[in-house]
Amino acid sequence: MTPAITVGVDGSPESLAAVDWAADEAALRGAPLRVVHAWLWQPLDVPVVQAPEEQAKFARAILREAEARAADRHPDLRPTSDMVSDTAVAALLGEAERAETLVLGSRGHGALLGFLLGSYGQQVIAAAACPVVSVRVPRDGALPDGGDVLVGQHGSAEDSAEVLGFAFRAAAARGAAVRAVRAWSLPPVFAYSPGSLALVDEAGGLVQYETKALREALAPWRDRFPDVPVIEHVELGSGGQVLLAAAADARLVVVGRRARRSPVGSRIGSVAHAVLHHAPCPVAVVPHS
């Protein structure tokens, strides 16, 4: 059975934007669409406590609205839905174990701050077994349908295989180009000893090294997706800054996350964190080894 594109909903405008993106993705990929809402009865902090059946009725209405929205957007879709009796984080992480992609909404906080990821979203993205796409409410009410798929490439070809694969599949489904970005910084020796720059050849040895590393990482995916145009971008700077500078016209940004736990638990990583909070388009975070 084909894994589903799964979207978590809570009735907010952000989650409805996530439904739109998930429905589009399912239609593009010919994948099933699954809509989930996590619900555990608990007394609400209001003067009149709702009975559990009233809260359950509200939860079911959220699912019906999301299903109807997806079906209206793509009449050929037959979305399924489920009300999961668990906390939001636990329910979504459970869904991520069997989903092809998990889609979540992100709350907007204005043009200056970008959008701030809620604590639930951060926990899910940091630990999910599958790629997670974070979608904000579009300013003009429409999801971006033009522009490149922007992907951050880091490390070796093996390190970035899952991330690049996701980006190329997304671009192929959309008839879009892949813009692959590799950011780099000077080794510490140059910061402490500027004279050491003389050791770099006049042709720009460090730039050539980074360009070669990016080209080698892209080579197998170019072969696998020959119809997808590829734009290479190598720039000196921090990964987050370089990606955000290139994201203005992107339709999707794809970044990686190390799928291993640190002593303080799972983490998103500084580059993914920056892009999730400030990119103007949907962001996919892909776990990799």
UniProtKB/TrEMBL annotation:
InterPro entries in the record: Rossmann-like_a/b/a_fold, Universal_stress_UspA, UspA
Superkingdom as given in the UniProt entry: Bacteria
Domain UspA, first and last residues per copy: 4-136, 149-287
Coiled coil: none
Entries under Pfam families matching the protein: Usp
SUPFAM superfamilies per the UniProt record, alphabetical: Adenine nucleotide alpha hydrolases-like
Family: Belongs to the universal stress protein A family.
Name of this protein: Universal stress protein UspA
Organism expressing this protein natively: Streptomyces alfalfae
